[in-house]
Amino acid sequence: MSTPAPRDDFPILTRKVRGGHPLIYLDSGATSQRPTQVLEAVAAMDRIHNGAVKRGSHLLAEEASLAYEEAREAVAGFVGVGVDEIVWTQGSTSALNLLAYSFSNLAAGRGESIESDRQIRNRMSVGPGDVVVTTRAEHHANLVPWQELCARTGAELRWLDLDEEGRIDLSTLNRINNRTKIVAFTHVSNVSGAISPVAEIVSVAQAVGATTILDACQSVPHMPVDLAKLGVDFAAFSGHKMLAPTGIGALYGRRELLAALPPFMTGGSMVEVVRMEKTTYAAPPARFEAGTMPVTQAVGMGEAARYLHKIGMEKVAAHEEMLTARLLKGITQIPGVRLLGPAQMRERGGAVSFHVEGVHPHDVGQFLDSRGIAVRVGHHCAQPIHQHFGVFASSRASVGPYNTVDEIDAFLESLAEVRRYFRMEA
User: Fold this and answer.
1) Which helix (H) or strand (E) holds 36?
2) Most exposed residue of 12, 21, 241, 305, measured as fewest CB within 10 angstroms of its CB?
3) Owning domain of residue 222
4) Is residue 109 domain-shared with residue 251, that is, in the same domain?
């Protein structure tokens, strides 16, 4: 069966690994592989077009600056937002911390020098008596920054809880109330694979005037995502999970909200006028891109967006849904293996975590690796949801647009041997 992303586009997938086994890569939820088109775009940037972005009038500087902004345009179009609503970051962790610290600076009065709507600034300013809401399903990158924001500002942290499958428990939406300033939540859990009820959460948040922040790391690379239509105020996603290099990501923010936020980092490129007494800042997105940005990586992320757009995200989603359904059916039929997350494909993504009874997740991972199968092991930077499931860690298989049915079947065959290998069963 053909894959939406041609296998020939991914040189790494031709590797033979442990014991001469062909590589079966089921760890795209952590880091995806990169097609030749992205690798060549990155190499060409380094070999031919390398120059200082927005810092010169010579040809190389012009070419680098153009490539940098064309990449922004490609990524903005890929997620359905304006080009001035995409801020380059080092990744989603960087993007979410940027927001948390910008909110801190706003609370400290640092936004008063920015010409913007005072009502918008007040909406995003967090202090004692205010509430920040997240969920128990979050990656640490969308939990710890909000814990720290609350510690700095005196706000209270609350969270939406989960049901037995790891889905957000809608009965806990009442924890979003009139004191809530921020609601930060994942689009797709990187542990359970559950897709959050975005419309319901956004509706409740908007009713109380709260700012919504979406962790879209596990959704943007795997399904059609239009951030403007989702109605969220901010969103973060990473390049290395969408066939692009590491060290690059994007923060989406509604333009009027970005315009009201003070910067987190300061220095070159993000200024308007600098005098010894005072500095004024450039308009977004430049305001949030201080210093030398990861230009080559941004070009790679732009090329990845073009590549996925050309394939068609509907095709990617349909293919991955088929593979995930096969994974779920197979895992639930293996004795001694417990699925962590929904067993059906309703509102579910392709991150499939599981616990093998009596075998440490790292041992599971090493056994599979001995067969050439790459999966994720550990707590996946999401300890609270593992605590919810009553385990300290898990193993996770996650699919990409280049995986095949044969690879899923080979994984399931090997997984069925794990407990027997470790003498957990006869």
Assistant:
1) helix 36-47
2) 12
3) 42-310
4) yes
> What pLDDT score does 113 carry?
62
Let me know: does 323 contact 5? Beta carbons within 8 Å.
no
| 81/211 same-domain check | yes
- Mean pLDDT over 179-203 rounds to 98
Cα gap 210→218, rounded to integer Å: 23
349 contacts 324 by C-beta, under 8 angstroms: yes
Q: How crowded is residue 113: how many other Cβ atoms within 10 Å of its Cβ?
A: 11
Using an 8 Å Cβ cutoff, are 234 and 91 in contact?
no
Among 381, 391, 393, 424, the one annotated catalytic:
381
381 catalytic per annotation: yes
What is the phi-psi region of residue 341: left when phi exceeds 0, alpha when psi lies from -120 to 50, beta otherwise? left
Backbone angles phi, psi at 70, to 5 degrees: -65, -35
Same domain membership, residue 71 and residue 118: yes
Give domain status of residue 426, yes or no. no
- Reduced to 3 states (helix: H, G, I; strand: E, B; else coil), residue 258 is helix
Beta-bridge mates of residue 355: 338
* Cα angle for residues 400, 404, 408 (degrees, 5° grid): 90
Report the phi/psi class of residue 166: left, alpha or beta, with left for phi > 0 and alpha for psi in -120 to 50: left
CATH number of the domain that residue 12 is part of: 3.90.1150.10
Domain limit, last residue, from 310, 334, 361: 310
Residue in this structure with the two tokens 């593992």, named with its chain if needed: 386
* Residue at which a domain ends, from 310, 334, 349: 310
Q: What is the pLDDT of residue 119?
A: 84
